[in-house]
Amino acid sequence: AAIGALKQGQKLNTVFKTVAATLNSKKEGLSSHMPKNVGFAIGIEYRDAAFVLNAKNERLLEPGMVFNVAVGLQNLKDDKKGDYALMVADTVVVPKEGESPMVYTQSCKKAFKSISYKLQDEEQEDEEEDEDELLIREAELQTGSRRSRHAKSASEIAETTAEIEKRKKHQEELARRMLEEGKARLGEAKSSDPSKKVGKEKTLDEYVAYESPEAYPASLKPRQIYVDMQNESILLPINGVPVPFHISAVKNVGKIEEGDNSYIRINFHFPASGNINNRNKADAPKFPDPDKDFIKELTFRSANSDNINESVRRIRELRRRFVSQLQEESKPEVQVQQESLILDRSATRKPYLNDVAIR
């Protein structure tokens, strides 16, 4: 009756009412043992809560809907067997108008032995398990199979232990080989050309701003700070004489405004007290002779704040470029050498790149 009630355009509560009426026709009051619903729709979720076959759902059935139709009865009484319950379920597809419903579970077994099971009390189950265990022990003692089974387990344990030891030795051998290969690669890196070594640190005397005063820029003006971006240097007027400093010697730069004057302060790298190799910055150079005298900072004053601001900006920009270059050189070489490209001049159509923009 429930499957037959699944028709296009019918309300979902019609299925529930049809089942209740059919049960009451078999026996008066039998529908009172029904659960609150007789199934649900199967969709994206296993149980679609919006399409439950109960007495209140007034949604309409549409072709192609799949329902788990489950008609059950509970709290039934029998004089011989006592209380019991039963449920019968099928997976049904709502048909189009004029067609019969498609039952997916029609080919499943329906014999009582295949679909029924009996629940036992816990005490009864424990007693049956104890009896079964006693029977098994008696059979093992008579046949001696219990001792042989233990002997087999011991042999399996011994075999497993041997495999573990073998695996452990193999892992130690692999670790030893990897260590030797690493030492060999490290030795090759140390013996290679120092000039091509990745991340090679330079000492301060390896940076040269200018070979001679004749190499100073032609646009250099007296008593002014000049930032030479091309040679990575700054020229500072000291007692009226331009003195060049490579940007590697500069630690940072700052400016101060006091009244009508502007001050620029340039801090330099110098050997720290105590441990000279304990540098705060990774890009600071090494000092070949830390016992010599070094300039810690220089301060210049100017009434023209625009010149000071421009000098600070250019020094910081040059400093960023230099640090970025050092970081690139410290990275391992991952680029692959590409062969020279050969242009095919015989082609009638010139090669070009599509959708390429330069900013």
Automatic annotation (TrEMBL):
Q: In terms of domain of life, where is this protein from?
A: Eukaryota
Cellular component annotations (GO), alphabetically ordered: FACT complex
**UniProt cross-references to InterPro entries, sorted A to Z:** Creatinase/aminopeptidase-like (IPR036005), FACT_SPT16_M (IPR013953), Pept_M24 (IPR000994), Spt16 (IPR040258)
Lineage runs:
Eukaryota, Rhodophyta, Stylonematophyceae, Stylonematales, Stylonemataceae
Question: Where does the protein principally reside?
Answer: nucleus
Q: Where in the cell is it found?
A: Nucleus; Chromosome
Q: What is this protein called?
A: FACT complex subunit
Q: Which Gene3D superfamilies match?
A: Creatinase/methionine aminopeptidase superfamily, FACT complex subunit Spt16p/Cdc68p
Instruction: Name any one GO molecular function.
Output: nucleosome binding
Q: How does it assemble?
A: Component of the FACT complex.
Q: Ranges for the FACT complex subunit SPT16 middle domain?
A: 225-359
User: Does DNA damage show up as a keyword for this record?
Assistant: yes
Q: Name one Pfam family in it.
A: SPT16
Similarity comment? Belongs to the peptidase M24 family. SPT16 subfamily.
Please name the GO terms of the biological process aspect recorded for this protein, alphabetically: DNA repair; DNA replication; transcription elongation by RNA polymerase II
**Which species is this record about?**
Rhodosorus marinus
Q: What does this protein do?
A: Component of the FACT complex, a general chromatin factor that acts to reorganize nucleosomes. The FACT complex is involved in multiple processes that require DNA as a template such as mRNA elongation, DNA replication and DNA repair. During transcription elongation the FACT complex acts as a histone chaperone that both destabilizes and restores nucleosomal structure.
Question: Mind listing the UniProt keywords for this protein, alphabetically?
Answer: Chromosome, DNA damage, DNA repair, DNA replication, Nucleus, Transcription, Transcription regulation
Region feature Disordered, mapped onto this chain: 139-171
